[in-house]
Amino acid sequence: MSKEAKILTAILVAVVGGMIGLFLLANQGSTPPTGDKTKITRDNSHKTGTGAITMVEFGDYQCPACGAAHPNVKQLLKDYDGKITFYFRNFPLTNIHKNASASANAAEAAGDQGKYWEMHDKLYETQKEWSDLPDPSAKFTEYAGAIGLDADKFKKAITDKQFQTVIDQDTADANALNVQGTPTFFFNGTQFTGSSTYAALRDEVESLLKK
């Protein structure tokens, strides 16, 4: 191969490589189009707050990223009290988190006794205690007693998976919305593509308040 041909080949390889790199960069972290927006919330979805801004999280109690986002969400709701209505919906990633479904059942069982948000917070704040347990039911029952639930009623509910249909409906809605992972947030019906840091969530709320 001549010197000129080698130079041209090198240039061609560099150009093609650059185009591939740009393509990958452009698609990195991209979000699939939102599916059926009527599935974002349901009448029986757990919610707190009464603000005009709706914030919906599809989450997994065993997901480390959700655990990291939890204090940011709590701080946001505190700082913007009266401005946000927050919904939490189950999207347990059971293929990678063995206790995701059990923890979602624990939250729903607590909700049946009027302590949904107390268990919701407890599960995230103690995530490292139960995530790797072969069977976390005893630990969840311990939490139930700590937050003032009827422990026997709670234990029966999680053993019988009495609220699995609710969790399955949430999961089906997440899939209909093309949710790809957790946590995934929606603000006023639009999927949020930023990070789950406090600053990113706060900036989104501030932007919406100005509209």
What are its keywords?
53% helix, 9 helices, alpha+beta, 5 strands
Report on the structure:
The protein has 211 residues and is of the alpha+beta class. The chain has one domain: Glutaredoxin, CATH 3.40.30. Helix content is 53%, strand content 11%. The chain has a five-stranded mixed β-sheet with strand order 1-3-2-4-5. A hairpin with a 2-residue loop joins strand 4 and strand 5.
Could you give a quick summary of the protein structure above?
By secondary structure, the chain is an alpha+beta fold. The chain has helices spanning 3-27, 64-79, 100-112, 116-125, 127-130, 137-146, 151-159, 164-176, 198-209, and strands at residues 46-48, 53-59, 84-90, 184-187, 190-191. It has a single domain, classed as Glutaredoxin (3-Layer(aba) Sandwich), CATH 3.40.30.10.
- Please state how the strands of the largest beta sheet are arranged side by side: 1-3-2-4-5
Low-confidence stretches: 5-29
Terminus-to-terminus distance: 63 Å
How many distinct folded domains?
A: 1
Provide the CATH top-level class. Answer: Alpha Beta
The chain-level mean pLDDT equals: 89
What is the name of the CATH topology? Answer: Glutaredoxin
Strand content: 5-15%
SSE layout and pairing:
Blueprint: H1 3-27, E1 46-48, E2 53-59, H2 64-79, E3 84-90, H3 100-112, H4 116-125, H5 127-130, H6 137-146, H7 151-159, H8 164-176, E4 184-187, E5 190-191, H9 198-209
Parallel strand pairs: 2-3
Antiparallel strand pairs: 1-3, 2-4, 4-5
Helix pairs in contact: 3-4, 3-6, 6-7
